[in-house]
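dude i think i finally got it to work??
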Amino acid sequence: MLSKRQGKRIAQAALLGLLAALLAGCWNAREIDELAFIVAVGVDKDQEEEGLVVSFRIANPTALSGGDSGGPQGGGPGSTETTFTVMVKGKTVAEAVSRLRTQIPRRPYFSHLQGIIIGESLARVGIGEVIDYFEREEELRRGVNIFVTKDITAAELFDRARQKLITISGIAISGLLAQAPETGFAPVVRLGDFLERFTSPRSETFAPVVTLAPATAMSTAAVDQVALRGTAVFKGDKLAGYLDEQETALLHLIIGGFRWTTFPVSGGGQISGDVRVNRMGGSIRVIDPAELHFLITIQLRGTLKQVHSHQSIDGPQLVERMAYELQRMLQEKVVALVDKLKTWGTDIVGFGETFYRSHPRVWFQEEVHTNWPDLFAQSKVDVSVDCLIVETGSIIRSAPFPQERPSEPAQKEGASP
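look at this
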């Protein structure tokens, strides 16, 4: 039995041990001035030799603090460039990161990464090994955004981008993604979501398309502004094709993921206008598992944003006719979109996931899962769209459109006006 004095000493020793543990620093602590903060990474297929070209967009701490950066790529005295680019070749991404450490005086740090940009040429030959690296990188957050380029390499994007509104990334990734749900013209895809689809046997993955565009409509304007342009669709780990902005908006009607998007409406030469819609609901259902028959239902609420021409129909009839023509148009275009995906054999909508959840025994017993891409191409898909236009903006009836006036007869010479 311990004496009172011994028990007190043991308690004091335990307290001292606890205090020592609390006062100890983090075992893997790093000084901030020893880190190179990577804000974006671009990966391209090396066109000259086997391997990759990896571009690193790195934060410039001196410029961010308001001082002179003292280096190239916006690094001269008085420069305001917040980032600079270093491009490295390597057989793999891991080798390129190791080589990067021989070219910069700080350790690369990925916890603040905003975007992974995959070049089109690499996406067409396969991205499996590249994705494996980013999935294993312990500093990388699964909320980082992922992109695929079109008509340009990731290296060219990093080199030529000169955003009018400078951001910490230097290429305005975060700002563009904040606007994407307001248009529906490009998806917002995080690395975690991309990986979930990438590794699923019941669906394929996709990513937003990023490219360069001119800042103005002038033909002489430099093509140096980063822009989102539709969706890159994968089959396995290879790029299958691109969806344009309107096809991307239609994809969002099916799967959600946007707040508003606008469609032009025209019918019978009598009505023409723009309707902004938001998705109130929707689903994919299996009608007949034996026939692989699906039904897509979409419920929309719309706002009449603009009337393009003088109308012979006005008031409530105009709104009803607009809604009818919008429903008809969207049904046709959604069917065409699904047909395109079936031609590619890539299910990014989620038909396979719906089939698995509603008929799991059929999915496995009939071995549907092993042949799903081919079976998806043979499936039958019906579409039902229900749209109600509930707002007409701040006016109910358009102002009269100017009518062409008949030409007046020429005055006779000498006649008084």
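The first strand starts at residue 35 and ends at 45.
im so relieved honestly
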